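Journal club side-thread
Mid-discussion, someone asked how the predicted structure for our own chain would compare to the paper's figures. Pasting it here so we can look after the session.
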Amino acid sequence: MIAGLFTAALLVLFIGGWIWAWSPKRKRAFDEAARLPLDDGDAGREDKGNVA
């Protein structure tokens, strides 16, 4: 009985997470995160290179 309730709760959490991840509101954030490995890493550091 408890195992069935636990399984049902995990299923509900999984489906809720899936809906959250695929919601149109999250698309921009996920697109930005997907581009992070492709960034050159120097964005926002224009003036920090001359500090030394």
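Post-session note: The two ends are 66 Å apart (CA to CA).
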